[in-house]
Amino acid sequence: MRAMSSNILNPDNNLPENYTESQSGGDADHQPNPVDFSTLSPDCVFDAMHAQGFHCDGRLLALNSYENRVYQLGMDDASPLVVKFYRPLRWSDEQIREEHQFVTQLEVAEIPVVPALPDINGNSLREFAGFRFAVFERQGGRAPELDRAGTLEWIGRFLGRIHAVGARESYQFRPMVNPQTYGDASLDHLLQHDFIPADIVHAYEATARMMLAAVKNAYQQAGDIQSLRLHGDCHMGNVLWTEVGAQPGPHFVDFDDSRMGPAMQDLWMLLSGSRQEMQGQLCDILMGYEDFYHFNPVELHLIEALRSLRLLHYSAWLAQRWTDPAFKQAFPWFNTQRYWQDRVLEMREQIALMDEAPLRV
């Protein structure tokens, strides 16, 4: 089994990915005159923070982010803070607050996460000049050393704890990860907006529909599976490792794409390499995971199905954001003839992989 290409697993170095506000449940009525990021200048960032009582010292560092706009700001006589400005209309206020509440519940359970800081009224979602934003403490760290003994088991323990909290209640406003939201809706968006070249579109559509049929078959083999609140974008880029502090070890960051879905959605994204390598990685992760949360082995049928759904979802996310100048600059290879040809080959490979027996535990 081949490794997933890095741009699919980690398209934006810690970013979530969502191709359309309307299908993600975004609230199009939040602002009477929606704004885009073109008016979010450094002065606007500083003014927003000063209006909330934060005294910045003038240092501003733009962090790697395309879906939202994220900055590290120096503070007078205090540690730097991170501020995230949410893409207009992507999530509703209720959906953002649900995510914040989930992360706060994880912090209360002493799980190493980074919750949004509340204001004096207890509100974690703030607003300035039509922008919605949240403020976070800066969390440093490095990439986990995956070849170091015990690392994956340690990550598995914390992920099991996250899922144990996530299973306590359900999101009321955030959407699901399933073949309809990530698969059918993504394909429909690509076909309706003529992104795929005319000489490829028929092969692409036919292959995508074959892949989605295999995905739905995998879901049928898995049967009735539990949905819980997930991290949603749990690749290794969203795991920071620290050696010092009250809780050394892995810290999970960026819950912006948190949704309801099967536990495997978070687990499969931690796997890479050959089938044999992923088999070993999964066993190491589950050694720690099952200390805190039960793993249902029927979800093994979903590993390649969820990987396939992410392929479609990622392409549709890029298509939806293609009018944003930052995307054209960051992803110049998207929407080229070669890009769509490669996706057809990749989907055919996924169809073959879903015919294979699932990994074992």
Q: Can you give a write-up of this model?
A:
The longest helix is centred in the middle third of the chain and has 25 residues, at 198-222. It is built from twelve helices and nine strands. It has helices spanning 6-9, 21-24, 42-51, 93-108, 151-166, 179-192, 198-222, 264-267, 275-289, 303-320, 325-330, 337-355; strands at 56-62, 69-75, 78-85, 126-128, 131-137, 228-229, 239-242, 249-252, 260-261. α5 (151-166) crosses α9 (275-289), α7 runs antiparallel to α10 and α7 (198-222) packs parallel to α12. The chain is globular. Mean pLDDT is 89; it is low at 1-33. The chain has two domains: 6-20 and 163-278 and 293-355, Up-down Bundle (Substrate Binding Domain Of Dnak, Chain:A, Domain 2); 22-137, 2-Layer Sandwich (Phosphorylase Kinase, domain 1), CATH 3.30.200. By secondary structure, the protein is an alpha+beta fold. It has a five-stranded antiparallel sheet with strand order 1-2-3-5-4, with helices on one face. A two-stranded antiparallel ribbon has the order 6-9. Strands 7-8 form a two-stranded antiparallel ribbon.
The largest pleated sheet is described as: 5 strands, antiparallel
Strand content: 5-15%
Q: Say what the CATH topology of the largest domain is.
A: Substrate Binding Domain Of Dnak, Chain:A, Domain 2
Number of helices in the DSSP assignment: 12
Query: Which structural class should the secondary elements be placed in?
Result: alpha+beta
CATH architecture label of the largest domain: Up-down Bundle
Structural domain count = 2
CATH class descriptor name of the largest domain: Mainly Alpha
Overall pLDDT, averaged?
89
Morphology call: globular
**Strand order of the main beta sheet, please?**
1-2-3-5-4
Would you identify the regions where 5 or more consecutive residues have pLDDT less than 50? Answer: 1-33
Helical content class: 40-55%
Quote the distance from N terminus to C terminus.
Answer: 17 Å
